[in-house]
Sequence to fold (195 residues):
Amino acid sequence: MTRILALETGNLKLETHCVQSDRRIVNIALIGFMGTGKTSVGRLVAEQLRFDYLDTDEMIQARTSRTIAQIFKSDGEETFRALEEKVVEEISARTKTVIATGGGLPASPKNLASLKTHALVVCLWAPPEKIWERVKNQSHRPLLHDSDPQKKIRELLAAREPFYKQADVLLNTELRSLREVAQQVIHQFRLEAVQ
Fold:
């Protein structure tokens, strides 16, 4: 049994779900919407566990020598999602790695299924208002280049929520410090990891 920590604003709700016993959990994959803390939490977790840290967006940018915004603008979202899929396939062979994913990556069932073959999938969650507060001054977020970015956040979050809820662990980051979230991720990983 895996304890799933589903935190709603102000409330703590513990649920139990079974993680398939045939899974070999040797990595941690952080999924969730932009601005939920995947990069910051991922770096803290990797440092504390002495794991490697990978960010799928950073990997794509390094390989293409372009920013995510440039890829979206010149080639479109479909091309970017294909690049994500290739990266996800590659990282499936890794061990002792914390993987921070792009916000839309788990919306592909193939990507989510691949992550679940080797990683404890942890979704970091925050309400739309908190996300907007965290990202409103960041110009590198291509999906926010919209006439009503707050509406866009709500729409994307609603569309992606069913995929995010397929994570092994759901953590609300709204009221917790980055360090507290990192400690919870580590705790959940230690409960499930292959020893």
